[in-house]
Input
Amino acid sequence: RDLVRSRGLGDVYKRQIIDSSVRRGDEARDRGEWEAAAAEYSAALLEDNSLSHVWVQLGHTVKEQGALRSASEAYKKALALQPNDFDTHVHIAHVFKRLGRVDSAVKHFLRALYFGLRSKSEEDELLLLLSQLVREGGFSKISDALDEIDALPPVEQEAPLINYLREIVSNSQSRLIDENLEATGHEACLLYTSPSPRDRTRS
Output
């Protein structure tokens, strides 16, 4: 019984340490003291690394310091704990955009929309990134990102933009298949109608 009581008191004390660190982190964040805020959030996560909201705040504070890769890692930790949080998908998408990782940014903007984000500005951002990918010849990456969406758990109401993009990809793939079949058929026809060297010598 004493052991159980001491463990209980230890848990309470640990919770107090975490709450105090998070509170000080929030206060430092509100003052724009990003380094101090990051240190407090990190201290809280040392006590309990399952706090997804604290990982998000850590991501914010290190991003404000210009440490974009560290920010992306913090957001990834948060998403590993709460994969359906569309706000975090938006945060990491913007970080990947700044890092020049357009395909990763597209992936997370799509997931944000899939999990419930309804924001015209974010949709416009996604469309601009998609246009950039197409210009750079990255159409297959768009298809891959949509395939990943298809593998996610179903949601009650999917964003209209995702359905629209699926139609574009499906139609484009169908057109490519038709063009390939037509080209293959044309080549087969040429092979069939072209006389062999032996035939040409006979004529």
Notes: Residues 185-194, 196-203 have pLDDT under 50 and may be disordered. The two ends are 106 Å apart (CA to CA). The CA atoms of residues 56 and 75 lie 6 Å apart. The first helix runs from residue 2 to 30.
